[in-house]
Specification:
With about 300 residues, the protein is an alpha/beta fold. About 45% of the residues lie in helices and about 15% in strands. The strands form 2 sheets. It has an 8-stranded mixed beta sheet with strand order 3-2-1-4-9-6-10-8, with helices on both faces. Strand 1 (about 1-5), helix 1 and strand 2 form a beta-alpha-beta unit. The chain starts with a strand and ends with a helix.
């Protein structure tokens, strides 16, 4: 398995080293470790001082951004399986072993496998942030499936693909995804829509655990709301561009249904029962606001796709 870690900022050097340490501690040892540095020569030079010969350090020049860097990683990968980890993630010791066992037990039409992402709070855990919105900070959210099974999409820092899929559908769209510090989204959603259109399956296994560092800038309300709008916008653009209709079983509809039928009623009951009133009231307002903004993003994305 080839593991691709995309890096950009000099501030993340120690975090990148943490990722590598977690990969060296895996119970499954046959891993090709690739770090792709996106256009930052200083970051590349600093990592050169720390990286041993068992890690392939690659400099990516263009196109700019996470998608382009991942595509460069794919081009330099030798494994039959290709995985992607963020530069602020940490793999649990049995992560790779679990993924490998799942691929060994799966049919060839299972083209991608991934697992749960749990937060590591760099600072205080925000009690105001509903767990249903953890996807905005790159973690598995309440309302996502709890058991092993097929899903539409995986989470960006815990997804492993058979290499041949990139020869069939191409890589990540370089016009989408994070560029520098611009927190854009959509490249993974588009990729999984293309995978589905080709008839392949995606497997989720919660036993394949990745931990994700959550820095304070991610737990600001404006950041959360921006992510919900961007997600709705990117999702609708991809669905329109690839002529994919949303169904009741689609991931986004399942999430909205869970919030409306479970999350909101639960918080209303707690408020009426005088159980942690302020926290539940604030979370209730955020959930309603997030759904509204995500829907606005979807409307905006639909209109732009039709222009």
């Amino acid at each position: 398995m080839s593991v691709i870690i995309s890096a950009y900022s000099e501030d993340r050097i120690e975090d990148v080293r943490d990722v590598i340490r977690s990969l060296k501690s895996q119970t499954y040892k046959n891993l090709e470790k690739i770090i792709v540095v996106d256009r930052n020569r200083n970051t590349f030079n600093i990592l050169m001082k720390y990286i041993n010969n068992d890690v392939n350090l690659v400099f990516h020049e263009s196109p700019p951004g996470l998608s382009g860097a991942r595509n460069t990683g794919i081009a330099n990968a030798n494994g039959d399986l290709i995985s992607f980890l963020d530069d602020d993630s940490i793999a649990s010791e049995t992560w790779a072993e679990t993924i490998m066992e799942d691929f060994d037990e799966s049919a060839d039409d299972v083209i991608a496998i991934g697992g749960i992402i749990r937060p590591i709070w760099i600072g205080r855990e925000p009690i105001w942030l509903p767990r249903e919105l953890y996807w905005t900070i790159g973690c598995t959210y309440d309302g996502f499936r709890k058991e092993k099974g097929y899903v539409e999409r995986l989470f960006g820092s815990n997804m492993v693909f058979r290499k041949e899929i990139f020869e069939i559908i191409g890589g990540f769209n370089p016009d989408l995804g994070r560029i520098n510090n611009r927190q854009l989204v959509g490249e993974e959603t588009e990729l999984f829509i293309k995978i589905s259109n080709y008839g392949y399956k995606v497997l989720y296994d919660p036993d394949a655990v990745i931990y994700h560092k959550i820095f304070p800038y991610r737990v600001k309300l404006i950041y959360i709301l921006q992510r919900t709008f961007q997600y709705g916008n990117a999702l609708m653009k991809s669905r329109v561009n690839f002529n994919v209709k949303s169904t009741k079983q689609s991931q986004e509809n399942s999430m909205i249904s869970y919030i409306l039928k479970t999350s909101i009623p639960q918080r209303i009951i707690k408020i009426l029962s005088l159980n942690n009133v302020l926290c539940n009231l604030f979370q209730l307002c955020i959930l309603l606001l997030a759904i509204s903004i995500a829907l606005l993003g979807m409307i905006f994305g639909y209109i732009k796709s039709k222009l």
